[in-house]
Amino acid sequence: xxxxxxxxxxxxxxxxxxxxxxxxxxxxxxxxxxxxxxxxxxxxxxxxxxxxxxxxxxxxxxxxxxxxxxxxxxxxxxxxxxxxxxxxxxxxxxx
Length: 95
Fold this sequence. Notes:
This protein is mainly alpha-helical. It contains three helices and two strands. It has helices at residues 5-14, 21-42, 73-78, and strands at 83-84, 87-88.
């Protein structure tokens, strides 16, 4: 499956982007090269390769996440244009 100028234009329209004709042609070439490379990768035998999230072992562990009260949270809320009972008051967006 090759990317065409029409594909680039359709995605650009969805993303609300505009490209000149030379940019569209450049993107077609770049995207087709990416797809060709992905097809080459798909040919690799990965049957005995374990999934991993990192290629290097993680030796340093970060601290555990623990909730901490911000000492002056009230001043943050007080600075908001609208607040109520310690919370920001925002316009309703859902029914």
